[in-house]
Amino acid sequence: MNKQRILLVEDDDEIAAVLKAYLEKAQFCVEHAENGVIALDRFRMTQPQLVILDVRMPGWQVLTALRQSENTPIIMLTDDDDYIDKLSSLGTSANEHIVKPFNLAEVVVRTEAILRRTTHDNEQHVILSSRSIEINLARHRVRIRPTNLEIAQWLTMTEFRLLTQFVREPERVYSRDELIETCMLKGNTLPRTVDSHVSKLRRKLEEAGAANLLKSVRGFGYRLGEKKWLKDSANN
Fold first, then answer.
1. Could you tell me the domains of the chain?
2. Of 78, 105, 145, 166, whose CB has the highest number of CB atoms within 10 Å?
3. What's the whole-number mean pLDDT along residues 95-118?
């Protein structure tokens, strides 16, 4: 599973090292920048999902620069509550503020919460398309193109997640372990349980007019049987 990327902008090497290690332990990929110039350069190179920024270094210039052209969520670290009000009065704000000295666990919890919220907000407007299928994540709808049938009401939640995953990256072969990780309750789920869910999903797709859409890859897993994801196929 791909790790979410965080850019940590902090000029105190000791604080940066501790915070970086703690975030990496929580399974984030962390890039550290010790000043604003390096931060903006690394932001462009790594395109992080979130920025953690020390307001005093001078973080507010970095915040202003990012807010002019980017919507990436930002957590500001500060040792002064009054500084937060000053930034707000200038029309510059972060998504979250954490006052030093901070609890490392709190930083992780806030980071996870923002990223969950951001991912959810982004996905609410996503429509995934292939030659045969269109999935509207906001409305929880699945349309089979050849027959124009809506089939979401036929699918279980696990089947909907599986189909979404396949359509999201149609050329990718997913192992059973990956599908358990991304689409199912992890608990005691066994690889053969994946086979059962995929078999039922395949049968429902065939009944709706999308035969041979899910392909088995012997000894590994499954993929969508279409080589190209047509983002504009709804208009064709």
1. 5-123 (3.40.50.2300), 127-235 (1.10.10.10)
2. 166
3. 83
